[in-house]
Write a structure and sequence with these properties.
Blueprint: H1 6-13, H2 18-23, H3 30-46, E1 49-52, E2 55-58, H4 59-72
Antiparallel strand pairs: 1-2
Length: 73
């Protein structure tokens, strides 16, 4: 979102593709969906997970939740 601090978004989103960064996350776009799925798989394979109240989430899922929270703030 335009009102958010760009540096904060960069840290939250990591290596999100530039096109998705410019236009936001359009989950109808199969390229964005494929990117998210691949990142989630890689997170679990590489141990990039976060435990939250008994649930194991990929770091990508956590970043996505943070992005949504920033966007809705």
């Amino acid at each position: 979102p335009a009102e958010a601090d760009r540096a904060v978004l960069e840290r939250l989103l990591g290596d999100l593709p530039d096109a998705a960064r410019r236009g936001g996350l359009d989950l109808r776009d199969e390229r964005v969906r494929a990117w998210l799925r691949a990142r989630q798989r890689d997170d679990f394979a590489d141990g990039g997970v976060v435990e939250l109240d008994g649930w194991w989430l990929s770091q990508t899922e956590v970043r996505f939740c943070a992005w949504l929270a920033v966007r809705q703030a």
